[in-house]
Amino acid sequence: MTAVCISLLREILKYEADDDVDIIIGLDRDGNSDLIARINKFISDHDADQVTYADAIQQARDQYHKDGEIEIDDEALVSPGDDPGIYVSAWVWVSIPNDSSDND
User: Is the pTM for the entire model greater than 0.85?
Assistant: First the structure.
């Protein structure tokens, strides 16, 4: 899913050449007010993180991945911690009991 979202944001960036699609939605903490500029910054940061933390992302896959239970996307989001470590986004499967009384 993360890869799909990243792909969608990349697709939106293709419209940057047409100034008519610029959308103003307030300022972010870096002072960017244009949605396209904000998406571009997010993608740039994300791409840099993918290179910088590639080994950590692979380590997370090696340690935690279980098909159908815990999965880590190809373009997993990362968040470095204050100590030597990093959070790597993962999908965790949770079974939901099928209770037919909820559907009435």
Answer: no
